[in-house]
Amino acid sequence: MTKIRVHEYAKKVNKSSKEVIEELNKLNITVSNHMSTLTGDALSKLDTVYNQKGGASNQNTSAPKQDQQAKPASTGQTQKVEKRKEDRMTEQNKTTRSNNAPQNRPNNASNNNASQNRPNNASNNNASQNRPKPASNNNASQNKPRTASNNDKPKTNQRNNNQGNQNRNNDSNDRFGGNSNSGGNRNNNNNKGGGGFNQRKKPGIHGGKRRHPKTHQPTIPVVPKELPEKITFYESLSVAELAKKLHREPSEIIKKLFMLGVMATINQDLDKDAIELICTDYGVEVEEEIRIDKTDLEVYFDQTEVVEEELGERPPVVTIMGHVDHGKTTLLDSIRNTKVTAGEAGGITQHIGAYQVVENGKKITFLDTPGHAAFTTMRARGAKITDLAIIVVAADDGVMPQTVEAINHAKAAEVPIIVAVNKMDKPTANPDRVMQELTEHGLVPEDWGGDTIFVPISALKGEGIDTLLEMILLVAEVGELKANPKRTALGTVIEAQLDKGRGSVATLLVQDGTLRVGDPIVVGHAYGRVRAMVNDIGRRVKEAGPSTPVEITGLNDVPQAGDRFVVFEDEKSARQVGESRAMTAIQASRSEKQRITLDNLFEQMSQGEVKELNVIVKADVQGTVEAMAASLMKIEVEGVNVKIIHTGAGAITESDISLAAASNAIVIGFNVRPDVNAKRAAEAEGVEIRLHRVIYKVIEEIEAAMKGMLDPEFEEKIIGQAEVRQTIKVSKVGTIAGSYITEGKITRDSGLRVIREGIVIFEGEIDSLKRFKDDAKEVAKGYECGITVKNFNDVKEGDILEAFIMEEIKRA
Ligand SMILES: Nc1nc2c(ncn2[C@@H]2O[C@H](COP(=O)(O)OP(=O)(O)OP(=O)(O)O)[C@@H](O)[C@H]2O)c(=O)[nH]1
Predict the structure, then answer these.
(1) Per-residue pLDDT tens for 209-237?
(2) Where is the Tr-type G domain (predicted)?
(3) Enclosing H/E stretch for 272
């Protein structure tokens, strides 16, 4: 039996619920309210009452008619209106879920009614009130828009529609059994999807949302990421960067640092030590990255990959050095003329700074600049291009100061030496004496049990030249000089100048690889493409292999002797590197290398940059030089030795400075002064000159510097210089030096040195300083004055008076 509620029945019979309840009471059927359900018995009783009264049945009979008439009207007339209603319904569903129940349930009831009693399709009237009903009737056509709206608002609509669908399915199953499978299936499909949602969203929209974070948090436990095995860094890392690399929170790193005694903030840069401390604590390996500076041409020299199978023998590069007039130029010309011009008849001799000769089928490259100026210039700029040095000593003159300098230059550059004993044609030639003297400088002839090759020659007559060349080849062979002609070229500038017609012209010595016309090239801070190449005999060439000197054009600027050159793969990179080098050229050259001074010696020692203190000792007499050298050698300070690279008697010269610059040495002058050129060179090169008058003070000072205990308070500053032009002897007063101030100024309270021919003969104080007859506080450059020196009366015309003060210096 089907059931129907009181209010539904009331409607059916066109009565109020109250009337129906009253009628029921009359029939002794108790109902509590209009929602009470009427069972079969009560229904039939009621039907009897109202049928008798001509209510429900009459309506029922008329209903189908109305319905039949109305139906086409309603479907045909306004489907739109239907749809709007439907939408409104959906809206209602959205807002309250509870509303659905009473709305849907009556539908079921009415549907059931419908199935029982066809005319009760009048309940389609209900449809106008209760949307789902007609919707279920027109499943196929009306489901679609609804599905669309589902998609629009999946959360709410699907849930509501599911209920609708479920109801509808029930309806259709009840009504059509298995016949409406297709429609049922479709709905079931919907149900499946919706069911999923329903299950998840059971507590409601908000409930669902609220539950979200609750369920998320516990399901994703904070498991720290695994530590990396190794991290790398460049220079430093901030705490945040380090944390990221270690896959840890910055706060954790900060905590760790704190425990290790380092207070840090998240953006603070950590130094190498701190980074290592943290990484060690985590057990992570750490490595500092070394980035290659593309613009540093030296890098390309150091990085040269050695491809053994591509290596080939290369000619030795030879420099000729020696004392003035001992025959260097004559020897270079002699070799060149006999070997070059003879072989290349008609060849125009061209001086490009270097040339090549062939001896026994093997090439030798000679640097065409006699003397060690060029040699040291290049070495000072870090370019090592010479494989072998020939020291020319005139057999009739013997070892001279510049011979010794040359030897020391070669030794400092660790280059093998061959001694050419020249002018053997001269009757006064005494080669034994030369050998003897050279032994004292560590060059012992093979005949005497040493390992230095001595070759007697006459450069003028061309005698012994072949032997000399053979010996060069022999020494070169021992040195196993190799290069790879297949790689791109790199090397050094021998000389360069600006030519009016050709622009920048540079002689390059290819040290490795092969240089070709058209190569993009960076030379020092200049760059360009090799436009044209000319060899040492003036011939145009297309390529130049290892140890070949060539003159090139095509650079945008003039490089300097000793500059490096490197060929690049493409012009763009060459330009980039060249331009960036040009920009930093001046700065770089100034701050390139910190020269050693007694002030920074200890610092450089502590940083491991210096293991030896190279010293050049110059003194007034040879005896003092030796004594000083011996005392300096005796200094014993842990971790560093004194290495005397050159000694000599006499004033400090430019050559001493260039040797010091090339060898990162300091110059100690004992009772001697640097000459003008040496002073200028020392300033330009940043070479330190220490001048002293007492041996033990020199030793003390150097020892203190090595121990990092150099008295930092005062430094001597020379404030001026005067030349003694006239001397006047006055009894009781002593000798007055009528002087002219040539440099700076002389003050009354300054210290004074008397220098005669570059040698300090007295150091003391000024007794009186007068302009005409008046005492003067100071006398400036360009003025004359009378000076008397305390406790010294032996001033002579031509002496130099040097004024100095002790100035407090600030140390970094
Ligand atoms: N008798 C003789 N004279 C020579 C010989 N070699 C050079 N001379 C002469 O010595 C003088 C100096 O020779 P140079 O070749 O100019 O000497 P240098 O070493 O180049 O001299 P600087 O360039 O001034 O350093 C010249 O007059 C040469 O002719 C030689 O083997 N025998």
Answers:
(1) 444 444 455 555 566 678 888 888 877 78
(2) 313-482
(3) helix 272-282
- Residue in 321, 325, 338, 428 to alter for ligand 1 test, most ligand atoms within 8 A of Cβ: 325
Structure tokens at 204: 């409601």
Cα Rg of the chain, angstroms: 54
368 is in an annotated binding site: yes
Distance between CA 332 and CA 410 in Å, rounded?
18
Would you say 282 and 246 are in contact if contact means Cβ atoms under 8 Å apart? yes
Running DSSP on this structure, what letter comes out for residue 570? S
**Contact (CB, 8 A) for 743 and 674:** no
Rounded distance from Cα 349 to ligand 1 centre (Å): 20
* Residue 392, φ and ψ in degrees, nearest 5: -90, 125
pTM of the model: 0.47
Question: Among 319, 328, 330, which is best to mutate for testing ligand 1, by the most ligand atoms less than 8 A from CB?
Answer: 330
Q: Which residues lie across from 714 on neighbouring strands?
A: 808
Pocket of ligand 1 (CB under 6 A): 322, 324-330, 370-371, 422-423, 425-426, 458-460
423 marked among binding-site residues: yes
Amino acid (1-letter code) at residue 646:
H
Q: What is the pLDDT of residue 757?
A: 87
Whole-number Å distance, alpha carbon 343 to ligand 1 midpoint, is 24
Listed in sequence order, the residues at least 6 apart from 420 whose beta carbon sits closer than 8 Å to its beta carbon are 320, 322, 331, 390, 391, 392, 393, 455, 457, 459, 464, 468
Kindly give the residue spans of alpha helices, DSSP state H, lying in 440-538. Answer: 465-479
Q: Judge whether 474 and 306 are in contact, CB under 8 Å.
A: no
Rounded Cα gap, residues 473 and 764, in angstroms? 58
Answer whether 638's CB lies under 8 Å from 660's CB.
no
Q: Is the pLDDT of residue 378 over 50?
A: yes
Out of 320, 323, 329, mutate this one to test ligand 1's pocket (max ligand atoms within 8 Å of CB): namely 329
Region of 725 please: left (phi>0), alpha (psi -120 to 50) or beta: alpha
